[in-house]
């Protein structure tokens, strides 16, 4: 069975015991965002909108990774500005694509007129959507500054295996669960 240090019970317990609520860390914000967004945000959107968001995330990631001026522009700015620029461009493209795709035939192709879907499907898509979004955003984080995050957060969202899993699982879920049933 595949086990890594990030899933070790002792490591998880140590991470939970080290939480300082008076001085929260980025890890705490990321984990809280992951949990809250997966539960509340996903239920409020419904399965069909989450599927459109997932497609928008994939398209935005492909565009941001292929924009030539971002890599050329990186040479003249600091590491923190590079991160902010890439995240800003990604979020801008993501919002535009989501707006256009949610008002296009794609929404009807992937979903059925805003169908909420079964609760368990919504929760799975929501979990995968938020995990993918966190993983993509953290992938823009400069490697030398990644030490700010705990090894557990890095392992869950930033490692090569984690990024491959977060990119692959939503596609598998869309293929397995399909677009849903007609109302």
Automatic annotation (TrEMBL):
Keywords: Membrane, Transmembrane, Transmembrane helix. The keyword Transmembrane helix applies. The keyword Transmembrane applies. The chain crosses the membrane at residues 26-43, 50-71, 83-101, 122-141, 161-180. This is Uncharacterized protein.
């Amino acid at each position: 069975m595949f086990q890594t240090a990030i899933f070790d019970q002792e490591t998880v317990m140590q991470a939970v015991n080290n939480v300082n609520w008076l001085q929260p860390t980025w890890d705490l914000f990321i984990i809280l965002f992951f949990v809250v967004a997966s539960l509340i945000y996903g239920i409020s959107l419904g399965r069909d909108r989450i599927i459109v968001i997932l497609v928008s995330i994939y398209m935005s990631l492909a565009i941001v990774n292929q924009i030539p001026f971002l890599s050329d522009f990186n040479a003249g700015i600091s590491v923190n500005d590079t991160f902010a620029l890439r995240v800003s461009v990604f979020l801008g493209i993501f919002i535009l694509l989501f707006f256009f795709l949610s008002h296009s035939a794609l929404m009807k192709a992937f979903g059925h007129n805003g169908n909420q879907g079964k609760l368990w499907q919504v929760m799975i898509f929501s979990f995968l959507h938020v995990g993918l979004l966190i993983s993509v955003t953290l992938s823009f984080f400069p490697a030398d500054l990644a030490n700010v995050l705990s090894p557990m957060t890095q392992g869950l969202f930033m490692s090569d295996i984690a990024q491959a899993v977060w990119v692959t699982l939503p596609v598998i879920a869309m293929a397995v669960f399909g677009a849903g049933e007609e109302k």
